[in-house]
Amino acid sequence: YLQERQHLGTGGGLRTFREDIESGGPDLFFVLHFDICCSFPLVDMLHHHIRAQAFVTVLGKRVFSDEAKTYGCLVADPDSSEVVHWAEKPTSFVSDLINCGVYLLNMDMLQDIVELGDALADQRQQAALRSATYPHLFHNIPDQLRLEQDFLLPMAGTQTLFVFETGDFWCQIKTPGMAVMCSELYMQRYRYVDPTLLASTGGKLSPRIEGNVVVHPSASVHPTAKLGPNVCVGAGVTIGRGVRVAHSIVLAGTTIRDHACVLFSILGWNAMVGEWVRPDAASVGGGGVRDVTILGTAVVCMPEVIVRNCIVLPRKTLTQSCHNQVLL
Predict the structure, then answer these.
(1) 148, 245, 271, 280: which is deepest, by most CB within 10 A?
(2) Are the beta carbons of 326 and 311 closer than 8 angstroms?
(3) pLDDT tens for residues 232-264?
């Protein structure tokens, strides 16, 4: 990993780590934002990029018109897929085609990013010299280099920026609880591309499986347990007699004791859920789930407690029921 010592913005990070990116002499490089969930069709993007002779290709997706304005909106030529206009979170409707936060760039673009960053740094330096006399005029020059707003947006309409439109799933991960929804999206894709990755009910000696469930081969699940829908069970997990798990992620090394009920939760590494414990999250109107309960690494829930709508930090032992709290 390459660690930023300060928040530089996406473009600033590329500028700072230019030599690392250029090592090995690649012709192209991908930039992927970490807070998105999608199928990442990188090979298809590459083929589209080469066919279009693009300098930069952006992954795009059609969304409902009322939610489009919360993202970067792209207007593309329907024949060539060139991006002719880019509006970042517009106040009114511009397009239902949004930027998905995945980019493919020619290596030449890295030099342009460096030069733009140098120009902005020079502006900041000049502003610092003047700020003692006119501080109110020079306070708004950005300290970061933003890839989208500072670099890509001005490229729209210059026949260098193109979009590859995906019809597959995509969502932005805005809260920790959205990890459960993202897990469900990936398991739905497994059902389509490789159903063998999903668990299934295999008789009296296997747990009951409902819907999409992934169970690591090293996990131990009692035959009387019921898993699903939307459950991911990690390596070395132990699930006891009569346990019910649904809409949850159980990370490696966790133990769930007999007759516990785990709903809408993320159980951290090496957590221990005691007998008859119920971690879950309350629902809101319409049956939707507000968020999830999260147990950090090595959290211990003593028997017969309820943990609802809570975030529990690592290595804490819960001896009584908790609701709507962050537990340190």
Answers:
(1) 245
(2) yes
(3) 999 999 999 999 999 999 999 999 999 999 999
